[in-house]
Amino acid sequence: xxxxxxxxxxxxxxxxxxxxxxxxxxxxxxxxxxxxxxxxxxxxxxxxxxxxxxxxxxxxxxxxxxxxxxxxxxxxxxxxxxxxxxxxxxxxxxxxxxxxxxxxxxxxxxxxxxxxxxxxxxxxxxxxxxxxxxxxxxxxxxxxxxxxxxxxxxxxxxxxxxxxxxxxxxxxxxxxxxxxxxxxxxxxxxxxxxxxxxxxxxxxxxxxxxxxxxxxxxxxxxxxxxxxxxxxxxxxxxxxxxxxxxxxxxxx
Length: 252
Known about the structure:
The protein is α+β, with helices and mostly antiparallel strands. The chain has helices at 87-93, 122-136, 143-154, 161-168, 172-183, 187-204, 217-228, 232-237, 244-250, and strands at 5-10, 20-28, 34-38, 44-50, 57-61, 68-73, 78-84, 104-107.
């Protein structure tokens, strides 16, 4: 990323990896607001945020299925976040997020015992968040669901719903009913998002041809444009770091 932004990402302990994708922070170091474009990434984000003009707040974002234009990061805005995998919704939050598909909601400012002081030290935030998540881990979970999500993430959604169903012994209809109730979209729709997200890793490296399970180059371009609004070549250029998710990948 450019010098206007600081981005840091930390991976969770292995014991939390079924539920947590990463901890990350984003800091707008400048005196002006920055307009960015958000892209679907298949995550549930719990974030702490504060800026020179915005008071401390805690938010939960649901799964995004579409490009989000004009996402503003205020001057000197600082955001610490935990990006969760979908299994966390049922077993950590105990509440569906279907109602915040493509949106989010504010949480109490003491949610999970966080407060504004937790934005002073990112490492301390990660340790505190990890400790809280450990305290919420269930003693048992549905083995079918655990295996389903393991397959979803290891394949980046690149196999069919029928194949998922056959591998875990859970009908496609039941899987989709579960997904729609908990997350607000079908498994197939979620898999397309994961495949798009995985393709961004390749595009960030200048690989503008399909490396995931796309039928051909035309299908690849169509899917990338569907989620980002632009073709892979334009996405790779990422003028002015507009696509913030791609910028974070390019900085790795």
